Prior knowledge:
By secondary structure, this protein is of the alpha/beta class. The protein has 2 domains: 5-45 and 272-364, Aspartate Aminotransferase, domain 1; 47-270, Aspartate Aminotransferase, domain 2 (3-Layer(aba) Sandwich). It is 41% helix and 14% strand. The model has no long low-confidence stretch (mean pLDDT 96).
Amino acid sequence: MKFNEALKEIKIYEAGKPIELVVREFGIKPENVVKLASNENPKGCSKKVSEAIASNAHKAFLYPDDSMFELKDALASKFSVTSDNIIIGAGSDQVLEFVSRALLMPNDSVLMSQVTFAMYEIYAKQMGAKIVRTPSYEHKVDEFIEAYNEHKPKIVYLCTPNNPTGDATIREDVLKIIEAIDKETLVVVDGAYMEYAAAKDEAYALSPKDLMAYSNVIYLGTFSKAYGLGGMRVGYGIANSPLISELYKMRPPFNITTLSLVAAIEACKDETFVEESIALHTQEISRYEDFARENGFSYIESYTNFITYLFNGNINSTTVSDKLLEEGVIIRNLASYKMNAVRITIGTKEQNDRLFEVMRKVLDE
Ligand SMILES: *Cc1c(COP(=O)(O)O)cnc(C)c1O
């Protein structure tokens, strides 16, 4: 069979290891597995959301409202935009896929930072596009403008805060990059962790509204992180309506489930849950910073719900991740990003206690 040539260039996305795998491979009881690998919300989701899912379970036989009127309406008022500025995806991942399919032709190029969200590359390569990366993992204005001028990419990805590094780009710099790019190029501002950055430092906060002045920019958000709904697969793109209309041509009908829709609508009504999640996070992340200092390695200042530990030569990220896994603690090794680093989702106090305990043991060995 002859597959699409473009597939040769694609490495399959490596998802965070599931709890089930640790149970199977190491015989650890599921309740003793600590999963800090996929940036899920350690508080779970809002109780109002899980109750709404349960009380609507009998609607599983119904297709969802394909207009997604109520969800778009809730997002429109939350962000002071209109419903025709919004497209809903099965995770913001699916919106990334729409964007890629709507714009890219073979041999086009796309621009992103050196270390960033892996799906940008995968969706672009599916279309036969070439990947251009800036030298740094941080989004540096000069590096982006230089690479943009040299390669004239069809899409520029700005991931702020950035995954898997956790750093963020100050709003002023994001706008400087956008201003330097002409309207033929789409700029994707991926704000999957924006709630955390905005709470930490106002200077890093970007809202979709800030970007509506640019016809060639789309803002992406998700319910998977701060709202704790990774399992429901709901994300969104917000942009000027002509751009959204083009993306709609890529959308399959009923692209999120009836219960996902219920969950996301309910989540929009409970901002207190997000505030509480961020408060817990803020408290716990400082323990991770202390832990790094105590153990003599560094970390990247985080604007997300995870922290990236940078190891020097005497600690190996693969060894650390493998040994933690044997103890039932799942974290993300960044060796595949050519970094001697690990990414750890900030958990509950108890989960973090367990991580520190096991990691101390591993580092002593
Ligand atoms: C998690 C994440 C997403 C999308 O997650 P979905 O679950 O598909 O909404 C997008 N971008 C980044 C940088 C992420 O970390």
